[in-house]
Amino acid sequence: xxxxxxxxxxxxxxxxxxxxxxxxxxxxxxxxxxxxxxxxxxxxxxxxxxxxxxxxxxxxxxxxxxxxxxxxxxxxxxxxxxxxxxxxxxxxxxxxxxxxxxxxxxxxxxxxxxxxxxxxxxxxxxxxxxxxxxxxxxxxxxxxxxxxxxxxxxxxxxxxxxxxxxxxxxxxxxxxxxxxxxxxxxxxxxxxxxxxxxxxxxxxxxxxxxxxxxxxxxxxxxxxxxxxxxxxxxxxxxxxxxxxxxxxxxxxxxxxxxxxxxxxxxxxxxxxxxxxxxxxxxxxxxxxxxxxxxx
Length: 295
Fold this sequence. Notes:
By secondary structure, the protein is of the alpha/beta class.
């Protein structure tokens, strides 16, 4: 029998099968179907990257919010006088004003906003300047909000006449920064509460700035004082941050209880009673020298 003629087969045949044609008969030999690709690792990787991107953006936003803000220090040269020249020499020309403000802000932010669950004010720019004129009776420092996260800290010229002008200005800046970051229940928080928090926060960067016993004796009758806040913070870490968060929108006496996690009245009474009694030998003393039972 005559062998059939084999026809050339194109290498470009179907990818899933190929055929060999012999005369009028076609014999098709099916090649193994390509295995379906298993779920690609690319899609899983893409999902992980998307999650990481969202998390990174969130962390970056929080970091940027907490990281810093623009600082402008206005020269007092045009005001003339000894105070203006000293301000420029001690704080403007050497960048000391920016450093003092940065350190103060970092300490206050760490105390009030330990994590993103503690909402913070929007601060985009802070201007430090000396008050106009020779007003020696004004407050050491004032803080004015200009909207859109911009604040102006104005320092009294009286601070520059102090023999320790650098320390006096630094202390005033710390208090101003604390006021800038604190919530005040839209102005409804009691003044002695906000002022005590300002004094407590201002003392964080510099232990020497703590309130002296003579200054704090009068405030003990109102219970809430820088020392009382320090006492509560030691026994209930994060108390000041929680109290500040509770003061964001409105004020209520229950805010102190909520921040403390217990009724504050008996704790206050015990603290005041202990603060007017001499220490008992062998008792445990708190930082201010008074003997107070653990809260």
